[in-house]
Predict the structure.
Amino acid sequence: MEKKEYGKLVKRRASRSPALKNCLAAFFVGGGICILGQCLTELWVALGLDLKTAGTVTTIVLVFLAALLTGIGVFDRIARFAGAGTLVPVTGFANAVVSPAIDNKSEGLLLGVGAKIFTVAGPVLLFGTLAGVVWGLIYYIFTLFVR
């Protein structure tokens, strides 16, 4: 089968993705998570916390809620509907840490949960940290020559 014929066959067989529906779902669910975060921050500030501390507490609460919802199976249903809308905010990180732990708990706490907990989030942490170090070194070297 030639390349051209194969391309035509793939186009006929492939189902069309509801891109507009997916984008809207991601936008509204991700936006809803961000609105929840903003409301929580405003609540903490109203209760007397400074803005920086309120932001930190909000992040902790959102991570906890996402981990809890992942643990009871609700987060996956929301993610199936919203796609990247749940993955982009900090809630996606919590889900990426908790999901492998749940999937591998039958292998035990050490070899299951402990060994597999960062299989999804680990590369993000590693390369994010590495990128921060590299850019920090570049910035440091740049400032040596600018003085």
Q: What stands out?
A: The mean pLDDT is 85. The longest helix spans residues 19-46. Helices lie at 3-13, 19-46, 51-71, 74-82, 84-87, 90-103, 109-116, 121-146.
